[in-house]
Amino acid sequence: MLSNHSGTEAEREGEPGFLTDSDELEAIREEAVAFIKDTVTEANARGVVVGLSGGIDSTLTANLAVQALGSERVLGLGLPAHTDADNVQEARTMAEGLGIEFREVDLRPLLDVFEDHVAAAVAPSGGRREIGNVAARLRMCALYYAANARSYLVCGTANRSELLLGYFTKYGDGGADLFPLGDLYKTEVQALAQHVGVPRRIIAKEPTADLWAGQTDAEDLGARYSDIDPVLRRVVDRSERVENAVEALDVDPETAETVAELYVGSLHKRAVPPTPGIDDRGGDGGGSHPLHLAAMANGL
Ligand SMILES: Nc1ncnc2c1ncn2[C@@H]1O[C@H](COP(=O)(O)OP(=O)(O)OC[C@H]2O[C@@H]([n+]3cccc(C(=O)O)c3)[C@H](O)[C@@H]2O)[C@@H](O)[C@H]1O
Ligand SMILES: Nc1ncnc2c1ncn2[C@@H]1O[C@H](COP(=O)(O)OP(=O)(O)OP(=O)(O)O)[C@@H](O)[C@H]1O
Ligand SMILES: [Mg+2]
């Protein structure tokens, strides 16, 4: 059910910590730009590739990447599948504005082959969510192909709201080498986009994953980010109980419960795949094993 709270998406009065101050926004811009630059340098990469949808997250990410690396070292890929061909023109316009190279690849033929051969054989009952996730994973393949071939990194576009809710395709748009917007809630992304001069029409667009016609984040999630973000901030960042958040904020209990459930239910999407932990060797996929860390420290 959609909550009927009527705040603006970019700010919510009375909720501390949400970005409205231009000095604060400027400091965040600088940090995100430095992060992209440092990550690319440390990886000895030549640049980054970004999937451009014509939406705010990818437009802002590409904008920050250009600020960090210069337009010569950023590649934009327009990768329309079934529903979003119209947005490719917007993505192209954004790329032209940033002065970056832009390539367009229609993924429909690949998706059709997948549906006819793989889906039909494995599970013909797969619906729009399953096929939409395949489109997101085909995009990931195209982005990594470009990264491999050019010694680039795949610059992901996920924001903190999406990451905490698990509102992304695991190893699809969730598969990337860095997430410059990953610490910022969607409402903060909107404020930062305004701060760096992303066109108003892009900021004003209804957020959509575009995995099927008419899909919107608000419909899928049951609420708008202006209601979701303050709940995440209290329940995740401040470890408050859901009831406390409901009482403090003007959100309905159902929305807050859903947000908390999505956060807990998507823990696996934010973790390294587990291993059994045989002989006490970690059980976390090796990511934090002392030998692994020592090898990294020694540059091995
Ligand atoms: N507890 C657990 N421990 C370990 N793994 C677990 C698991 N539960 C599920 N899994 C695995 O995760 C899979 C489900 O995850 P996943 O494949 O991602 O699929 P799922 O989360 O069901 O779908 C992705 C969601 O993200 C949305 N999305 C996708 C892409 C872009 C955007 C956007 O905002 O632009 C939004 C999309 O609309 C949909 O609501 C399961 O099939 C299973 O393999
Ligand atoms: N047609 C597309 N071409 C290239 N990349 C795409 C396309 N559709 C989605 N993506 C990639 O998947 C990412 C996730 O989509 P998402 O909808 O969350 O971001 P967005 O479209 O930039 O912003 P919004 O969430 O406001 O619609 C995009 O930022 C983009 O990198
Ligand atoms: Mg989108």
From TrEMBL:
It comes from the Archaea. Deamido-NAD(+) binds at R137, K170, D177, H268, K269. The keyword Nucleotide-binding applies. Residues 1-20, 271-290 are annotated as: Disordered. InterPro entries: NAD/GMP_synthase, NAD_synthase, NH(3)-dep_NAD(+)_synth, Rossmann-like_a/b/a_fold. Keywords: ATP-binding, Ligase, Magnesium, Metal-binding, NAD, Nucleotide-binding. Pathway: Cofactor biosynthesis; NAD(+) biosynthesis; NAD(+) from deamido-NAD(+) (ammonia route): step 1/1. Its EC number is 6.3.1.5. This is NH(3)-dependent NAD(+) synthetase. The gene is nadE. One of its GO terms (biological process) is NAD+ biosynthetic process. The lineage of its organism: Archaea, Methanobacteriati, Methanobacteriota, Stenosarchaea group, Halobacteria. It comes from Halosimplex aquaticum. Belongs to the NAD synthetase family. ATP binds at G51, L52, S53, G54, G55, I56, D57, S58, T157, K186, T208. Catalyzes the ATP-dependent amidation of deamido-NAD to form NAD. Uses ammonia as a nitrogen source. One of its GO terms (molecular function) is ATP binding.
